[in-house]
Specification:
This protein has nine helices and eleven strands. The chain is α/β, with parallel strands linked by helices.
Length: 331
């Protein structure tokens, strides 16, 4: 059983100003950071097209694999990655149907949890990476959690932001919603582009800002929409870049029992950063139950609470990065 450290960070006491216990009260030497321009586009061939990504840092190192949240894109990490150590590489990918990545062919359905786990495995096997470190936010954190549980001896570190495990739904809610979800999926599949809403740039920014309901600010929306919108070739305006079919997310959800069973499989070192207030979960107790279950078998579990919204890594990355940097530095 690994040791557990529980900490809380307040706005008045930024982790960047904390002293390291290894320095006997002396301030740590300034950390060399990646910076804003240390990335390039990266493309991964897959059977249905390509998975697009941003590779931060040197390509001579095995990267941390970073996965974003539902209907976001890898731009979600654009403000966090520059604050990570310069000797770190991060591969932040656009999940299938998100950002610049290929959409699934007509007739294929998104089972976002299971698809994502398989995608991580596909990438790891393609590049023969060993002892991987995973970073996830929201849906991306659910995927990294599931991967660490499915391949417990092949993951070294798991870093999740404002998510503990897959979204939990009651069996009754899943049963009642299946029919509606299937019809909605088929409706989206046959909706021609000419009938999809088209917006001006400013309209798109305002629409997304309102939809996120306080989780992001306007500058953060502009960062996300660099990959989240595309120009409409037939009209003077913009469309969402993501696949509309992604809006049907109910199918393939988990029960609390399933999530806890997977939590018991995880053996790696874990850092979980919970936003306060962060996301409002339908079953908030499951978050605490997952953390408690991880402590049973994981090599180490570090749980920290950081003031911020669900997108705290994008809106207030300076509060998040020091915790990640400290965790990466630890053996």
């Amino acid at each position: 059983m690994g040791q557990t450290r529980v900490a809380a960070t307040t706005a008045a006491q930024s982790p960047a100003a904390e002293l390291s216990p290894e320095t006997n009260g002396q301030a740590e030497e300034p950390l060399q950071l990646l910076g804003e321009d240390s990335w390039e586009e990266f493309s991964i061939a897959v059977p249905w097209g390509t998975v697009e990504a941003k590779w931060w840092g040197s390509k001579e190192r095995q990267p941390i694999i970073a996965l974003h949240g539902w209907q976001d894109n890898c731009g979600s990490f654009d403000r966090l990655c520059p604050l990570l150590p310069a000797d770190t590489s991060i591969l932040a990918i656009d999940l299938p149907g998100h950002g610049k990545s290929s959409h699934y062919p007509m007739g294929m359905q998104y089972f976002i949890f299971w698809d994502g786990i398989c995608l991580i495995r596909r990438i790891v096997r393609k590049y023969n990476w060993k002892n991987v470190t995973l970073l996830g936010h929201s849906l991306g954190g659910a995927l990294t959690f599931m991967y660490a549980a499915s391949f417990p001896t092949e993951v070294e570190k798991l870093i999740n932001i404002d998510i503990a495990g897959p979204t939990v739904r009651s069996t009754q809610r899943m049963a009642e919603g299946t029919g509606r979800a299937l019809d909605k999926f088929l409706d989206y599949e046959t909706l021609p582009e000419s009938k999809q809403p088209c917006y001006s740039y400013d309209e798109m920014i305002k629409l997304v800002l309102d939809a996120y309901d306080g989780s992001v600010d306007e500058p953060s929306v502009r960062v996300l929409m660099n990959r989240g919108m595309r120009h409409n070739p037939s009209k003077d305006g913009y469309l969402f870049a993501r696949d509309l079919r992604l809006k049907v997310s109910l199918l393939g959800m988990f029960t609390a029992e399933q999530t806890l069973a997977y939590a018991r499989q995880i053996r790696c070192r874990v850092l979980n950063i919970r936003g306060i207030p962060g996301m409002k979960f339908e079953t908030p107790q499951v978050y605490a139950d997952v953390i408690a279950t991880l402590r049973e078998n994981a090599a180490k579990v570090v749980y920290v609470e950081v003031p911020g919204t669900h997108h705290l890594h994008l809106v207030t990355p300076d509060r998040v990065a020091p915790h990640i940097n400290r965790f990466l530095k630890e053996a």
